[in-house]
Amino acid sequence: MSTDREIARRALDLQARGKDVPLLELPGYVRWSSQKLDEGESPALIAHLDAMSMFLLPEDVAGVSEEAFDELLCELRDQVGE
Questions:
Q1: Partners of 2 in the β-ladder
Q2: Do the bridges between strand 19-22 and strand 53-56 make them parallel or antiparallel, or are there none, so unpaired?
């Protein structure tokens, strides 16, 4: 279990080193979005995702998977009622 000190240290590290990374710059995103468009996904939803970013530490960028992109798409569909 994390102590308050460890939690505070991680939060400060995230604040100091984290940055917004556009989805278009994440490894695998462009291939994933092209595949979704080829499968008939709404171009408007994909364009919305294209404009989004994630706040990440540099070492976490490579670990963002297609599952995360799928989750973002599902959440967006829920928000717009599709």
A1: none
A2: antiparallel
- How far apart are the C-alpha atoms of 20 and 78, rounded to whole Å? 24
Residue pLDDT, tens place only, 14-70: 889 999 999 999 999 999 999 999 999 999 999 999 999 999 999 999 999 999 999
In 10 A of CB 73, how many CB atoms?
A: 20
How far apart are alpha carbons 29 and 20 in whole angstroms? 15
Say what the pTM is. 0.82
Tokens of 25: 């710059």
DSSP string, the chain: ---HHHHHHHHHHHHHH-EEEEGGGSTTHHHHHHHHHHTT--HHHHHHHHT-EEEE-GGGGGG--HHHHHHHHHHHHHHHT-
